[in-house]
Design goal:
This protein is globular. It is of the alpha+beta class. A 5-stranded antiparallel sheet has the order 1-2-3-5-4, with helices on one face. The two termini are 25 Å apart. The longest helix has 22 residues. It has a single domain, classed as Heat Shock Protein 90 (2-Layer Sandwich), CATH 3.30.565.
Length: 137
């Protein structure tokens, strides 16, 4: 596998988020991603992987999370896949509305949608596809 494509697969344990942080660091360093974009990528990826581990796979270490990175044109592309039942991604509460503002969770998808240039949910929400248009900028 070359520098333009990487895959990770790991058990659903929160400490494995560190593997994704290392991947983001490696990718951003290799492609010389500007610091302004690095934070958006790191937050989006850690939120997506945390959701896959906690909500998708319910912290079951027998279930895997798969992360795939590749480039497409001027974009860094990531997909995060879990083995859970999926979720209704089109009907999530707005974390910025007054009744939700004090809730400790529910912001992950909101953050991903706002920090990534494109955020899509596939396979009933079991796969999150994140795109960052950051190369050559």
């Amino acid at each position: 596998m070359n520098a333009n494509e990487k895959e990770l697969s790991f058990p659903s344990k929160t400490e494995n988020i560190a593997l994704v942080e290392q991947l983001v660091d490696s990718v951003c360093s290799y492609f010389m991603v500007k610091e302004d974009f690095y934070g958006n990528i790191l937050i989006s990826m850690t939120e997506a992987v945390n959701n896959a581990i906690v909500h998708g796979n319910k912290l079951n270490p027998d279930k895997q999370v798969k992360v795939h990175f590749y480039t497409e044109g001027d974009k860094l592309m990531f997909s995060i896949e879990d083995e859970g039942p999926g979720f209704d991604f089109s009907n999530l509460p707005d974390p910025t509305s007054p009744e939700n503002i004090e809730k400790p969770n529910g912001r992950g998808v909101f953050l991903m949608k706002h920090l990534a240039d494109d955020c899509r949910f596939l396979d009933d929400g079991r796969i999150v596809s994140l795109s960052f248009d950051v190369l050559n900028k």
